[in-house]
Amino acid sequence: MPTSDEMFAVVTEHLGGNHVRIRCEDGETRLGRIPGRMKFRTWINEDDIVLAEPWDWQDEKANIEWRYKGQDADQLRSEGHIDSLTA
Fold first, then answer.
1. pLDDT tens track for 9-61
2. Does residue 61 lie in a domain region?
């Protein structure tokens, strides 16, 4: 579950390298950066639900903190946590 400075987001576009375009639950579209610890271990595709942490100094960018697998994302939807996101 997200902390106070994190939020759910859906990946809308893979931009190559370690960057993705994400739509966050607050309605903003941000440039998401996949950190090195996730880059080769976790594949992030379009329509994946992720946990994003917007940058303090540039609100239009965010770090990807976690990717939810299909079953976990379905459970979040059924519990009503990600109603505003459609994937």
1. 999 998 888 899 999 888 889 999 988 777 777 788 888 899 999 988 888 99
2. yes
**The total number of residues written for the chain in this structure:** 87
For 24-52, b/e burial (b = at least 16 CB within 10 A) is bbeeeebebbbeeebeeeeebeeebbbbb
- Return the CATH number at 27: 2.40.50.140
By DSSP bridging, strand 61-68 and strand 49-54 are antiparallel
At residue 84, the pLDDT reads: 66
Long-range pairs for 53-58 at CB < 8 Å and ≥24 separation?
A: 53/5, 53/6, 53/7, 54/5, 54/7, 54/24, 54/28, 54/30
Query: What pLDDT is recorded for position 86?
Result: 59
